[in-house]
Amino acid sequence: MMASDKIKNEEINAWFNCRRKELLKKKSGNSGQQMLMETQSLETPQKKFCLLESLKFAEHRMFHIRYSETEFPEYYLWTGLMDHITKQDNILAKCESFSMNRRIPKYKQFFLDLIANNWGPNAPTINDKPLQKEAVRWLFIDCFLCIEMTKTIPAIWHLPLIDQTSLLLNNIILTAVFNKTFYSCVNCPNAETLTLPNGFSPIFLGTFNVAIRVFCESIKCFKEINLSMEEFVLLRGMVLLQHASVDIAPASHQILQDEIENFTSILMDYEKIKFGNMMGAKRFAELMFFLIRATKFSIQHRNLVLLFMTTMAQQQKAHFTTFMESVVLGIICANDSVKTAETQK
């Protein structure tokens, strides 16, 4: 990755130093609880603190790109997975090119009317794309953004390319689903189902047991736990770094295990600072249980997408890019290279 495209850690260090000076200037008249939190914050190792801030910094940019009214460049979805992993530039460093105006989601009734009026020989469409494929498209936009986010986690840089690839193939779609479920809760507080930035939810196409679990129960699970931004970025990192079932070198396993322990330690410190030792430990335990549930929902989501893609391919109704196929199937597909929409015609 080029130095100019990396998340600017020097900015985070500068922010940390300014914050530290502010806390040191606080008068001793602060309330006991506030002083305790500030003192404990100062005792947090700077390295750990900077990791958390860099994760939040990257998340801010991801959220901006995802919800900007600027249409996401289709080129990225026609690029092979290996090109995404190895390319030196990072779209997070280019977020200023996306409009500051937020995308305005359409109401649920708009999509229900669209489906009711157009279902038949021609599938309902939005922006000239079938609604089913539009839902899949957003999943892969989230996958791409998660790949870009991984470039801000130092431990992943240290892995050999083959191990980086294996890790992402195993975890990236799970991380993307974790992302989009959290975003649905944050951006649509009253939503009862997973919702995309344009207001569409795949559940509108039909309700059945798996769909309800994937799109509705997962939202309920996230709302119950009510994650803070700090908790979200740390838990998402743990989802991405899980490696027990990944076929990688022993040294890579150790690097990832050390990083997971680092994330866990930061999360525990954060909860203790926020809630105190006893309640912080309780909250930490709740988050670990929640993480297991959220991962199960993500796996079910991937299986549902795989079923849809397989069905569409068998009916020859859609062609999916090698990037999409690699992410869902968990393998590097043949001819995984840059492909544009023009070359597919």
UniProtKB/TrEMBL annotation:
Coiled coil: none annotated. The keyword Transcription applies. Keywords: Receptor, Transcription, Transcription regulation. It holds the Pfam family Hormone_recep. This is NR LBD domain-containing protein. Residues 87-329 form the NR LBD domain. It comes from the Eukaryota. PANTHER family: NUCLEAR HORMONE RECEPTOR.
